[in-house]
Design goal:
single chain; 366 residues; alpha/beta; Aspartate Aminotransferase, domain 2; 7-stranded mixed beta sheet; 13 strands; 15% strand; binds pyridoxal-5'-phosphate; Histidinol-phosphate aminotransferase; histidinol-phosphate transaminase activity; PyrdxlP-dep_Trfase_small; HisP_aminotrans; transferase
């Protein structure tokens, strides 16, 4: 007998709104009767160049070894990350699935029922999910109109139950960086752990990870999903103080980084040319989109731009672009983002041209 047993589920789980991912090519192809091959996917900030060919070769090479467990602590990958980041392996953890796995692990390590986390909105929607699953309560602090945050407001939101402050730089979906002095101010005046999400940092002029050497309450999250083009592998890592690495290992799922992910991650780090090209295409493309899209486009330090289509509605414009075979991300599922913002991933130059044309048509249709 298979009964549904909702009473078995923890009470706090019912407060969790489902994570809303960007639309897939298959969904749009079937919804609008389009040829999947003709669809341009610019809704999930993926790398338009695909993965490094070295990473692909590593995947092929590891396929016959799929019966073997990877190393439990992903040490080979952490050694490669040590070279890439300049931090010793004692400051590094590798995580699967993705950086999301790191966020999940940290919440399981730190958050208990009744604890609070601070989330400056609008921002990446996932932070509150693992916190809530652990019985934590997100406290939202609104960003300024230009999406910068006010460190004083963040600190004022702190209570004796605050355990983690989630910051994102460059911020998703706005693309702006967190100034180093604002981060220092927060780090120096809080008792909580500060998590800085640097998923897009390679596209930016500056990073904040160096501050892990100075502060024992800072964690920086990184991912292979964006600039390295390995979103499908679900691989991330964290830079954190040694004391926290030691505690984190206690709750991390053993073998969370699969063997193919581990080897492909190492190969991706070794492909400086693919990295350089991926950064270049995003930097050139975001300036092109900013100059050509006939709406307000925010300056970006990332591989996407935020477009304000007011007085039109994001939903209407998104729908119209999707009908033309272009997938973008309306931001109405981001808390406090309103209903006129659309996030557009920078694509190849040809894709960017098509996006601009589509926006022009939508603008003329009014
Ligand atoms: C994509 C993204 C992540 C998730 O990275 P994964 O490694 O794919 O889990 C984390 N934070 C931000 C801001 C992102 O945009």
């Amino acid at each position: 007998m298979f009964l549904s047993r909702p009473k078995l589920i923890k009470k706090e789980i019912f407060d969790i709104a489902e994570y809303v991912p960007g639309k897939s090519i298959e969904e749009i192809a079937s919804a609008y009767g389009l040829d999947p091959a003709s669809i341009i996917k610019l809704g999930s900030n993926e790398n338009p160049l695909g993965p490094s060919s070295k990473a692909v070769q590593a995947l092929v090479d590891t396929a016959p070894c799929a019966n073997i467990y990877p190393s439990a602590d992903a040490i080979e990958l952490r050694e490669a990350l040590s070279k890439y980041t300049g931090f010793p392996v004692s400051n590094l953890v590798a995580s699967g699935p993705g950086m999301d796995g790191l966020l999940d692990g940290l919440c399981r390590l730190i958050i208990e029922k009744g604890d609070e986390v601070i989330v400056p909105t609008p921002t990446f929607a996932y932070y509150e999910l693992p916190a809530r699953a652990c019985g934590g309560k997100p406290v939202f602090v609104r960003r300024n109109r230009d999406f910068s945050l006010c460190p004083e407001k963040v600190l004022e939101a702190e209570s004796p139950r605050t355990k983690i402050i989630f910051l994102c730089s460059p911020n998703n979906p706005s693309g702006n960086l967190l100034p180093e002095n604002d981060l220092r101010k927060i780090l120096e005046n809080t008792r909580a752990l500060v998590f800085v999400d640097e998923a897009y940092v390679e596209f930016a002029d500056r990073n904040l990870a160096g501050l892990v050497r100075e502060y024992d309450n800072l964690v920086v999250g990184r991912t292979f999903s964006k600039v390295f083009g390995l979103a499908g592998l679900r691989l991330g890592y964290g830079v954190m103080p040694e004391w926290l690495v030691k505690e984190y290992i206690r709750v991390a799922t053993p073998f969370s980084v699969s063997l193919p992910a581990l080897k492909a991650g190492i190969a991706a780090l070794s492909d400086a040319e693919h990295l350089r090209k991926s950064i270049e295409i995003a930097r050139e493309g975001r300036e092109y989109l900013k100059g050509k899209i006939p709406f307000k486009v925010y300056p970006s330090q990332s591989n996407f731009v935020l477009v304000d289509v007011a007085p039109l509605k994001a939903k209407v414009v998104t729908e119209s672009l999707m009908r033309k075979g272009i997938i973008v991300r309306p931001c109405d599922s981001f808390r406090e983002a309103g209903d006129t913002f659309i996030r557009v991933t920078v694509g190849t130059p040809e894709q960017n041209e098509k996006v601009v044309k589509a926006f022009e048509i939508v603008k003329n249709e009014g």
